[in-house]
Amino acid sequence: MLEYKQTFYLGLLQGANGIETDVQKTKDGVLVLFHDDTLDRVSNMQGKLCDYTWDELKEAEIYGSCTTEFYDRIITFREFLEKFCRYDIHFAIELKGADVEKETLEMVKAFGIMDKTTFTSFAFEHIEKIKELVPESTIAAELAKQDAFKLVIDSAKAKKPAAKRTTKKKE
């Protein structure tokens, strides 16, 4: 079995100057690295990641697109930071799921990488919360094509950069 962080090491060995990863919270509140909302597509488990505890997720086998018998495991955000905070690289941390902002910020601060971290999300609420908690933090909102187009149009009309929600909140 490989560990999720091995892919990050491989990137650094190949000359990457940064790491982008997604942070989500488990059922019992542990921050973990995982891209999808559900485990179905890439693992031997089914269902939403947030419906599992960290102890349950430790057993997940995460498969890549190759046809080998190798698989990764999910790691915690803390494990990731312990291994990679010492490198002179940039971090793009995508926030996913409910209530991840405060603890993610606290850990990034504790590991001393605020100055080389950009917080991103498709959910504008995460970006707003990050700026509310730490106004000097670096953020980048990720937008679907139609949202980006509307943002450009709104900015052009106002003749200044728009930093507001341009789409309706999901209810």
Describe this protein's structure.
- This protein has 171 residues and is an alpha/beta fold.
- The chain is built from six helices and five strands; from the N terminus they run αββααβαβαβα.
- The chain has helices spanning 5-13, 54-57, 77-84, 101-110, 124-133, 145-158; strands spanning 18-25, 31-33, 90-95, 117-121, 138-141.
- The chain has a five-stranded mixed β-sheet with strand order 2-1-3-4-5.
- Mean pLDDT is 83; it is low at 159-163.
Nutshell version of this structure?
The chain is α/β, with parallel strands linked by helices and 171 residues long.
List keywords for this structure.
alpha/beta, 171 residues, 32% helix, 15% strand
Report the principal-axis shape.
Answer: globular
- Secondary-structure element order, N to C: HEEHHEHEHEH
**What percent strand?**
15-25%
Structural Rg = 17 Å
Largest sheet composition:
5 strands, mixed
- Report the average pLDDT across residues: 83
Give the number of helices. Answer: 6
Structural class: alpha/beta
The end-to-end distance, rounded to whole angstroms, is 41 Å
How many individual β-strands?
Answer: 5
SSE blueprint:
Blueprint: H1 5-13, E1 18-25, E2 31-33, H2 54-57, H3 77-84, E3 90-95, H4 101-110, E4 117-121, H5 124-133, E5 138-141, H6 145-158
Parallel strand pairs: 1-3, 3-4, 4-5
Antiparallel strand pairs: 1-2
